[in-house]
Specification:
By secondary structure, the protein is mainly beta. It is built from no helices and 14 strands. The strands form three sheets. It has a seven-stranded mixed sheet, with no helix packed on it. Strands 4-6-8-11-14 form a five-stranded mixed sheet, with no helix packed on it. Strands 1-2 form a two-stranded antiparallel sheet.
Length: 138
């Protein structure tokens, strides 16, 4: 016998083409903090760090169309910066498409994979500068 007072807060819409989150429900999003050069997954949130005036380059996994990716860059010195991207992937930012995003200072972006080979920056916040780059080292 089922309990009629029990209501799901998250459920799949009939037909299976949408996931519904009602009041009181939530979806857990993985957060990964990276301090070494590694690949940032193509979903969830990655916190990328550069310390002591260093240059850190982080790879970005191949996009899955429709995926949302949040990147928070923490640059601990005025002379350091972080590049994130990968060969064969483009990141569209302010009308320019390049292989890398360069963070000179702390900042964050939200990316949406518009194809299986490109991301689009849909939101940003920065205390430094964010720009596109053809290189992961400059």
């Amino acid at each position: 016998m089922s309990d009629a007072t029990y209501q799901l807060n998250i459920y799949r819409k009939q037909g299976g083409d949408a996931l519904i989150v009602d009041d009181g429900g939530y979806i857990a999003v993985p957060v990964v903090s990276e301090t070494t050069a590694a690949n940032a997954s193509n979903f969830g949130m990655s916190i990328l760090k550069a310390t002591g005036g260093t240059v850190k380059t982080y790879g970005l996994d191949t996009p899955e169309q429709g995926c949302v990716k949040h990147i928070q860059a923490v640059v601990a010195a005025a002379t350091g910066f972080i590049c994130v991207g990968a060969s064969g992937i483009t990141i569209n930012y302010n009308g320019t498409a390049e292989q890398y995003l360069k963070f000179a200072g702390d900042g964050g972006v939200t990316l949406v994979a518009d194809t299986t080979a490109s991301y689009v920056v849909v939101a940003e916040a920065s205390t430094g500068s964010i720009a596109t780059s053809t290189s992961g080292t400059s």
